[in-house]
Amino acid sequence: MAEIERYLAAAERANTRRSYASAVRHFEETWGGFLPATAEAVARYLAEHAASLALNTLKLRLAALAQWHRDQGFVDPTKAPLVRRVLKGIGALHPARAQRALPLPLAELTRIDAWLAAEIARASAPGERAGWLRATRDRALILLGFWRAFRSDELSRLCIQDIEAAPGEGMTLYLPRTKTDRHAQGTTFKVAALSRLCPVAAYVAWIGAAGLTDGPVFRRIGPDGHLGTTGFHPNSLVPVLRKRFTDAGVAEPDRYSGHSLRRGFATWANAHQWDVKDLMEYVGWKDPASAMRYIERADAFGRHRIEQGLAGEGPATTLVAERETT
């Protein structure tokens, strides 16, 4: 039985398991619901939390309850018409604008990297090992996250034994599983060595400074410079990034998140005429709609195109057009 449970656990991502377990506890312990639940109870639960929880959060709670009932062999109450109608009504009465993290522009990436380089130089003095290691780690984290357009969970799960780095050439990274790798076949990523803002050089410098040979690439560093043995939790990356953005003088650092690196690269690539198909293949998107959600267009308001059109319509042209329409 233990072996079956081990394989069942492996079929789900750890983050999903934690989220679902938390959702079930909220329904049962915090709200006081009973499991197995009726459709009426689930609908009442949704209605009572409609004003305080985002629609996506409510959908996650439903997914967790649905799985609990399926796993226990009970009828899934979340599929009942009553529940679906209540959820639809919540969406109509409580519309929520999607909050998206700002994409990190290349100019800000350059600013952050310059600040970290200066911090590494400053903290190289005796007694500053912890600060030196953190700056070296964070430089590698940010550059690799940007140029490879990694998600926070992907950065947190990178392991040294799955990476081959050739300074001056590039890196090959392997992840046993990613968000879009539903069949857990593993994915190999390649990163080029660059003339500046180089993720390969930053990675090699971090591994060398920390003396790491295996295990998680990015991990906690204690006040005395002692390295943790486990990798960062994905949620832990956001405070690290925002602190470095603040240190470097980036405006509105709280509007950035782990997705800012991914969105920043996608926006940069789009501005430099990367073909959408090539960008999708590089980043790992399966459909164009996913790609477009991450791309911040350089001419977001369409001003450039409109001004081009206006420039071609002088007073004479406009007058003729007006006469033809009257």
Describe the 3D structure.
This protein has 326 residues and is mainly α. The protein has 2 domains: 2-93, Tyrosine recombinase, N-terminal domain (DNA polymerase, domain 1); 106-294, hpI Integrase, Chain A, CATH 1.10.443.10. 55% of the residues lie in helices and 7% in strands. It is built from 15 helices and 5 strands. The strands form 2 sheets. The chain has a 3-stranded antiparallel β-sheet with strand order 1-2-3, covered by helices on one side. α2 crosses α4, α6 runs antiparallel to α7 (129-147) and α7 packs across α11. The longest helix is centred in the middle third of the chain and has 19 residues, at 129-147. It is globular. The termini are far apart. The mean pLDDT is 86.
